[in-house]
Each structure stands twice: as structure tokens, then as C-alpha cells.
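Researcher: We plan to redesign the surface later, but first we want a full-length starting point. C-alpha cells attached.
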């Protein structure tokens, strides 16, 4: 792998959903997540990171250095034991009594083998026994919740289920009803941060990893289509690169340079990306910061 990144990055992700549910809330019957005070839609950082993980897993498979740690129905304990096998440790004995450098070796092994730990970090404290407690790794890449640019309109759509479960239902020709929860349209904005300091000192997140991250963000909805999520698409990825590893300007001042406004007839609700205008005030970029706009 290449050397750890040397520059700090801040970035903005713009994506939209049409006639779908971008991120259901289990506490609200799987309705689209919403800020109850403002009516703006929400998508969690966990949801976005899941899509990035899925893309990397799809394109890299089991390639060395690109395994995925957080997986559906995969035991984290089994993955943690890989480090024990690598160094010949006894998982029933405290690591410090077996190897004084165990903490550093575990961190380097897990970061070197799992892309998502190297990128997002991980909490590896699933074992109850002290001997199998791997601790926590703080990753250089962090994402915020995504929030819709305008308030969303949640809709509950009733559907007819023609398939029946039992012979009795079939004899009675009984149809059942179901429900789908959607929003007609929503443009969402998420913000992210990449720390060169953490990449160099902790996880060794590299330039190759960075290129793969951008690729994953740009394509994270393309292999994730479903009827429940409707039509979701990445509309733009706006990247601010700092000359310095510690940054040349505060992140919030850079995010304020990205302005999203309604276009056309603003009296009607937005129903497509064409109803918005995205502008980046590059003339106000601080010294030492460059901006790149990426899109499909």
C-alpha cells in the first residue's frame, strides 16, 4: 500500500431520493427519518457508511487489505481471533502477559487487513473477557448525518398483496393490504472530514484508500437499488483539499461556501434535482485550500 495521506480533507455529499425511503426509522414503524421540530429529513451516518462498505466489498471481495469488519450476520469475535492466530497468542490469557506490544500489534493488524477499520475506525470490545478486549480505533474519516435541503413530505402508500399465505385464504380469494413509506422527493446533504493526523499516527489510511473512498461514495447507490428505497442517486461530491495535514481553514467555513438554492418555480414543491441550483463560492476559498467537484 502507498504511504498515509498527508493532506486534510473536508467534503460535502449531495444525493437525492425519488418516491422512496432513504433510511427508515424503526422507532417510527420504518417511516423515513425526520426531524420532528423542523420537518427536515435525516439519513444516519451509519446508513451511509454501510453503503460505502458494501461497495468496497463488492469491488474488492476478499482482496488482501480490503476485508470489511462490520458485516451483516458475521461474527466480530471470529474476525478478532484472526489477530490471535497471526501472532500465536492464547485468547484465554491477557494479552499484556503474552506480549508487551500487543496493543500496537493488534491495531496495526486490524487496520492493515480491514478497509473499514482503516477508514472509519472501530470499537473492538465485544469480548467480555479482559484477555480478548481489543479496545477502540479512531478512524480518520468521519461522516455527519445527512439532512434534506428542504422539509420532506412523508407519505404512507397502501398496496394490495395478491399472494396469500394459507389454503384457507386462497379458498376465500382474500387479498391482504400492505404499506410502503416514501417521500416524493428529497435532496440530502451530508458533510465529512478526513484527518491526515489520524491517518499517519493510527490507521495508515493511504492515498489508495482515499481514491477508493471517493469511488465508493460516487457509486454507493448504484449497486444498492431496491423498491423500498426508490430512485436514489449521488448528485455531487465536493472535496476541499488542504495543503497542510492539520488544515488551512476551519471545516465549517468551507462548508458555508457550498450554497444550494431553489431554481425555477419556487412556489411548487421540488420534484427533481433540476429544481435546485448548487454553487460553490471558489472565489472565497482560503489560502492553501483547493476545491474539486466530482459527479457521476
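Model: Full-length starting sequence:
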Amino acid at each position: 500500500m502507498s504511504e498515509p495521506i498527508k493532506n486534510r480533507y473536508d467534503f460535502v455529499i449531495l444525493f437525492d431520493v425519488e418516491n422512496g425511503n432513504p433510511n427508515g426509522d424503526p422507532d417510527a414503524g420504518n417511516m423515513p427519518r425526520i426531524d420532528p421540530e423542523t420537518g427536515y429529513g435525516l439519513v444516519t451516518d451509519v446508513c451511509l457508511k454501510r453503503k460505502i462498505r458494501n461497495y468496497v466489498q463488492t469491488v474488492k471481495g476478499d482482496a488482501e487489505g480490503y476485508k470489511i469488519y462490520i458485516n451483516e450476520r458475521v461474527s466480530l469475535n471470529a474476525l478478532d481471533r484472526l489477530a490471535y492466530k497471526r501472532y500465536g497468542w492464547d485468547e484465554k490469557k491477557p494479552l499484556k502477559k503474552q506480549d508487551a506490544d500487543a496493543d500496537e500489534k493488534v491495531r496495526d493488524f486490524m487496520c492493515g487487513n480491514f478497509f473499514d477499520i482503516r477508514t472509519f475506525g472501530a470499537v473492538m470490545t465485544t469480548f467480555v473477557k479482559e484477555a480478548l478486549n481489543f479496545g477502540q480505533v479512531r478512524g480518520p474519516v468521519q461522516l455527519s448525518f445527512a439532512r434534506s435541503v428542504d422539509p420532506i413530505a412523508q407519505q404512507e402508500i397502501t398496496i394490495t398483496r395478491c399472494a396469500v399465505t394459507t389454503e384457507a385464504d386462497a379458498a376465500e380469494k382474500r387479498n391482504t393490504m400492505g404499506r410502503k413509506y416514501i417521500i416524493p422527493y428529497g435532496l440530502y446533504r451530508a458533510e465529512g472530514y478526513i484527518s491526515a493526523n489520524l491517518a499517519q499516527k493510527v490507521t495508515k489510511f493511504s492515498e489508495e484508500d482515499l481514491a477508493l473512498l471517493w469511488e465508493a461514495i460516487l457509486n454507493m447507490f448504484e449497486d444498492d437499488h431496491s423498491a423500498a428505497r426508490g430512485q436514489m442517486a449521488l448528485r455531487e461530491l465536493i472535496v476541499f483539499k488542504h495543503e497542510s495535514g492539520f488544515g488551512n481553514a476551519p471545516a465549517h467555513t468551507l462548508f458555508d461556501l457550498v450554497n444550494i438554492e431553489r431554481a425555477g418555480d419556487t412556489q411548487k414543491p421540488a420534484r427533481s434535482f433540476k429544481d435546485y441550483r448548487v454553487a460553490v463560492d471558489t472565489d472565497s476559498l482560503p489560502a492553501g485550500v483547493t476545491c474539486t467537484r466530482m459527479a457521476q
